[in-house]
C-alpha cells in the first residue's frame, strides 16, 4: 500500500505548470478510492490540503473546505512539527515511508492508528506529506494479558535491544536459547555481513526480515529473524525488537534439495545445472578481470558398449572410478562436473589457463590409461577430450560449450586423446551430421556394398577364407570409411539394419562361391550392440535360412568386450549361435581387456591378433605370446594387417595359422573377389611354411651374428 500510493503520486507529479488545485485533483483521485483514512499535509503551511472521506471522518471535519481551513498547528507540539519537517526532507525523492502511532478522537472516542508517512513531490518548493492511517484495535486488558502470557510461553525467541544493540529484554524462549551470556545484537550474528545487511535494511525501513546464522548457547544455528524499530514499552526510547525462529531443519532440508538438484548422485560431482551456473559466473568475472578460462569436455570412448554389454551396475562403478581418477588430477581452483552419462567437464580458471589446458588434458588421458579395478575386471579407458578457450574462441558459455564439444568430437574421430578447438572443426562436425542423416537413406536404398578381403593359409598360401567388410560410397563425400559410419550407426541404432544386410549379402555370396566350387568360409563382423537386443541368434538363423547357406561356412567376428559380459542373455546368444553351427572368432585380440580367462570359457574357433601389433612393418613381441596361448587352447590364430614379407615370414615361422593383409590383397568388390578366388585358388600352393621357416631361421641367425660382431 505504501509503495503503491507514493508511486501513483510521483508518477503524476512532474508537471509544475499545473495549478495546485489541478495537481491535487489529479493525485487525489486514486487515493479517494481507499477505504482507510488518507490525507495530504503541507508541512510548510501546517495545513491539510486534501483528505478522503475516511480522513474527514477521522478529523471530525464537516467538509474538505472546513478541514483545509483549519490551522493544524493548534494541538501540535513544536517537536511534532519539527519531526514532520524532518520526514519530508528525509523521505523526499524516495519511495520509503515511516510509521508512527497516533491517537485520534473520531466522534469523541480515543482510537490508536498506525500512520504511514511518505513524502511526495509537490509543485515548486512546497513540502507535502501523504499520510495513511490504519486503525490499531485498542487492546483490551484481557488481550494485553493474553499477549504477555503468549510472550512467556511461545517458542519464538523475542528480544529487545536498545539502538546501541545492548540487550534490554528477552523472553524465556530467548533466554533458553542464549544461555547466560547476554550478547549484543551485533555479537549475535555469526557472519558480520548478515548484521550489516540487517542494519542497512533497518536504516531504510521500520522492519527487516532475514535468515542468518546466529550465535546461541548450542553454537551457530540458522534463524529466521524479524527486526522492528519500535519504542521501548518501558522507557519509550527507540529500540529494536527481534523475534527469532530456529529454521535449521528447513535449512538442512533445503541443503539436501540443493545437493540433489546441483550434484550428481552417482559420483557426488556437481551436475549440469551447477556446471552451467558456475561457468556463467566465472565467465562474468573473467570478462571483468580480463582473465583467461579453459573448458575441457571429456567423453569416454566406447563407454556405452561396456555399459550395454557388461551391465549398468558395472558401468556405474566404472564411472565412479573414472571420476576419482579425474579428481586426482585437479589443482586448486579447477572445477570438475559430470554432465551426464560418460560426459565430464572441467573448468580451468586461472592465469595461463590456455597453456595449462593441454597439459591437464594429457594428464587426464594418462590417468585413465592406468587400469581401474572394477568387479574383478582391470579396465582402462580412452577419453576424447575437447578444449575450448575464453576469450580466444568464444565470448559466451553456449558457444564455448559447443566449440569444446566439437573439439571433443574431433578427438573422438582421431581415436581418442585431446584436441583444442579450431574453426575448421565446424566442417568436420557438419560431415558427421551429414553421415548421420544420409546413412539411413543409404541403408533403405540398398546403397551399402559388401567387399571381401582374402585370408590365406600360412602353411602354403592357399585360400583360407574371406572377411566381409561393409562399404559406403556417398554421392558427395565419396567413400566413407566404416570407422566413420559404424560408430554413428551404433549410436543411432541403425547398426541392426546394416548387420542384417551384410549377413544376407555375405551368406548369399558364400553359396554362390560354393556352387562355383570354392567352398570357403566367410567371416562377418558383429557389433557389440547386436548383443543388446537378445535375439541375435534368431537374426543369424533367419539369414541362413533365407540364403540357404551352410552354417559351418560362416564365421562371426566378435569382440572381447562381448565375452566379458557375464549376463545371462549374452551367454544364451553365444550358446544359440554355437548350436546353429556357425563359428566364432575374436577380432582385434589383445586390444582391449587382455583377460585370457574367457578364452577357455567360450566355444571359440579362432582369434585375430589386433592389427596394431603389426604396425610400421615390424612386429611386437606380444604376437609370439598370443600365438603361444592360442596354440595351447587349440585355437586358430589369424594375423590381420600383414603388409610386408618380413611380417609374413615372421608369422609363418612362429606358427600363425592364417594371414590377411594388403600384402596379399585389399578388400575387393564381389566381382574382383571372385576373380581373385579363381586366379589364386586353382589348387596350387604359393609357398611352403617349412621352407619359409627355414629361410627365416637362417636369416635370423645371420642377423644375430651381425649384431654380435
Ligand atoms: P576390422 O574388422 O579389424 O577390419 C579390418 C580392417 O583393416 C579393414 O578396414 C581392412 O580394410 C583393414 N585392413 C586389411 N588389411 C590391412 C592392411 O594390411 N593394412 C592396413 N593398414 N589395414 C588393413 P575397414 O574395412 O575400413 O574396416 C574397419 C573396421 O570397421 C573393421 O575393422 C570393423 O571393425 C568395422 N567394420 C567393417 N565392416 C563391418 C561390418 O560389416 N559390420 C560391422 N559391425 N563392422 C564392420
Ligand atoms: Ca574384422
Ligand atoms: Ca580386426
Short key terms for the protein model shown above:
binds ligand C2E, eight-stranded mixed β-barrel, binds calcium ion, elongated, alpha+beta, 27 helices, 709 residues
Describe this structure in words.
The protein has 709 residues and is α+β, with helices and mostly antiparallel strands. It has 27 helices and 26 strands. An eight-stranded mixed barrel has the order 18-19-21-22-23-24-25-26. β4 (111-121) and β5 form a beta hairpin. α16 (425-444) packs across α17 (482-492) and α20 (536-547) runs parallel beside α22. The termini are far apart. Bound molecules: ligand C2E and calcium ion (2 copies). One calcium ion (CA) binds at residues 467, 525, 557, 587. One calcium ion binds at residues 587-588, 608, 611, 640.
